[in-house]
Amino acid sequence: MSWGTELWDQYENLSLHTQKGIDFLEKYGQFIKERCTIEVEYAKNLRRLVKNFQPKKKDEEDYQYSPCKAFKLVMAEVNDLAGQHEVISENLQSEVLRAVNILVKDLKDDRKKHLQEGARMMTQLTNQLATLERARKNYEKASREAERALDTFQRVDADMNLSRAEVEKQRMNMTLKSQQCEETKNEYASQLQRTNDLQNQHYHILLPDVFRNLQDLDEKRIKDIRNFMIHSADVERKVFPIISKCLDGIVSAAQQINEKEDTLLVIERYKSGFQPPTDIPFEDLNGRGGSERDGSSGGVGPPPLSSVGGFRPEAMTVKGTMSAGGKLKKRVGIFNIFSSNKKLIDVCNSLKSNLSSYGDNKEDYSDLPPNQRKKKLQMKVEEIVAKIQQETAARDGLMKIKGVYEANPAMGDPMSVEGQLNESGHKLDKLRLELHKFQGFLDEVEGGGGGSPANRRHNNVNGVERKRSLLHRNSAGGGSGGEEESLSRSASDSSVSNNHNHNHNNHHNNSSSSSHNNHKQSAPGTPLPVHGCSNSPAESGIGTSHTSLPDSDDALPVNDADYYEAELLPPLGVCKALYPFEATSEGSIRMGDGEELLIIELDQGDGWTRVRRATGDQEEGFVPTSYIECTLHSTC
Question: Which three-class secondary structure string do you get for 596-618?
Fold first, then answer.
């Protein structure tokens, strides 16, 4: 079925129909546009919702419980859902709405062109019909005039009274009118033939072509609307897997909620560490003097209520924990508590002052209950250790840069990083002092005797290492800084502690000889390897020993418990030099071709291996891993 044959006379209706179709397409495009706006607004509102319900800094402690953690995960998934709605909006705009707008423009242009062509054809046919009508009228007029001239000639010719000249005149007029009539007749026939041909071509060829073009245009519009709707659904369907994952994430977060673990967390968070009060003893007031009943005598009797259970009632806070504030008050007789309101007012004021003092944050957290204090100190120690590791890693990078500059001066001046190295060293010193201080607080809480032997040994190593670094800076020139000072500060407490523990027995058996040998073979300020961090030739180096001398308040007495010196690390294997190597930076040692060395520390990923000479002064240092062939012991 074709519009050109079936609707050959419906030009106006087809023009109106195609215009309505384009208007509908524009309406669908507006629908897509407003839906994109709604998707964006919905995503924005979801993100605002997630932002409004994010935990405040003051509520972070409450978010350690599993429902709160699950809620944070749920909010993260909801935020991802918002992102998927934004993706839907973006894809609809770029893939559907843009195509709709382009199609609307193309349809309008094509429709306008086809309608103009049809209008031109209609105008041409109309003009031809008008020409035909004029030719017909001319022919009709000429025919009437020819008939009238013929009648006049016949009347004159029959009248015997008229002259021959008058008859001849009418004959000539009749002949002229007959010729004009014939000419107009021929013109009329010609225009009629031309009009019929044009009309036949118009209604069977030209106008049907225009209608078929309009039909194709409308069918293309309908087909594209179908494709747009399908594509819109596909755009949304593409994000369904991600939305499904977000929903699965919400379910997974909810399944992580564990009421038993939360119960343990509540116990750990609020447990004070105090023991419940013991039974209150009975006080027999009979037979005691008035002064004793009033509490003014120091006679023998049961302990006052203030001392029962080892704590004072006025030192208890509203949370049932001990407060650092509050002073011991003398207990008065039991019959005096109703004498005035002054006692009650004093108790309320005491509770108020103790409650306010409970909230004060002291450096050693002594205002907290034992269990809570221990937890806070452990967190503080872990925080300081993390800062030390971070600062040590940064210092490793600076030392590597300095080593590169020393090996190749064209790349930079080694002294350009000296200031940063000194600043890093000062930061490490401060952090180690702070770590030593808080470790002491923690040891005090854990038992008052320094905690476990490993902890005491670790603290002793920390303290001696700190003093050793301070002594070295004093001996190097009053703390002026420099290469040896910066290297000394990069020593690792944990590595020293492990080394000291590993050779603890040898240290006690050969204390004097080890001290002498180590002082002879170790350069002053040579750092020990940093535990947990990658070693570089300028930082991870040779075992050193410095005797702590009494120089300040931190000085230690010289005895077997506090005297510290590093022991030689046990060899892990042997290596053979494949190429000669010249020491170009601090911490590295020279190596000859084919020389055999002892491996005392493996490559930590930075390309350097720590070795010791097997003979001679047993010098230690770092050599490139690619320059040696390693053979490890079977036990390693």
Answer: EEEEEECCCCCCEEEEEECCCCC
Return the residue matching tokens 């119960």. 263
Q: Roughly how many angstroms between the first and final C-alpha of the chain, as a whole number?
A: 90
User: Residue 195 and residue 203: Cα distance in Å, rounded?
Assistant: 12
Strand order in the sheet with 596-601: 620-624, 608-613, 596-601, 573-577, 628-632
Of 621, 437, 408, the C-alpha closest to 523 is 621
Q: How many beta carbons lie within 10 A of that of residue 361, not counting itself?
A: 8
Q: Which structure tokens are listed for 628?
A: 């040696």
Which token pair is 74? Answer: 């749920």
- Percent of residues in the chain assigned helix, strand, coil, to nearest 5: 65, 5, 30
- The token pair that represents 54 in the structure block: 């994010």
Give dist(CA 128, CA 125) in Å, integer. Answer: 5
pTM above 0.90, yes or no: no
Does residue 297 sit in helix, strand or coil? coil
Q: Counting beta carbons within 10 angstroms of the beta carbon of residue 305, is it exposed (0 to 12), middle (13 to 18) or buried (19 or more)?
A: middle
Could you report the per-residue pLDDT of 406-417, keeping only the tens digit for each? 888 888 888 888
Q: Which residues contact 515 (CB under 8 A, 6 or more apart)?
A: 545, 547, 565
Residue indicated by tokens 């004021």 = 349
Count of H helices and E strands in the chain? 17, 5
Interatomic CA distance for residues 607 and 404, integer angstroms: 13
pLDDT tens, residue by residue, 312-323: 444 444 444 444
Q: Amino acid letter at 196?
A: N
Q: How far apart are CA 182 and CA 174, in angstroms?
A: 12
pLDDT at 47: 94
Write out pLDDT tens, residues 540-577. 333 333 333 333 334 333 344 343 344 677 889 999 99
The rounded Cα 498 to chain-centroid distance in angstroms is: 38
Q: Which of 477, 589, 472, 574 is nearest to 519 (CA)?
A: 472
The first and second tokens of residue 120, run together, are 């031109």
Cβ-count burial of 352 within 10 angstroms (0-12 exposed, 13-18 middle, 19+ buried)?
exposed
Question: What is the C-alpha separation between 338 and 344, in angstroms, rounded?
Answer: 9
Q: Which pairs from 477-480 meet CB under 8 Å and 24+ separation?
A: none
265 is written with which tokens?
A: 């967390």
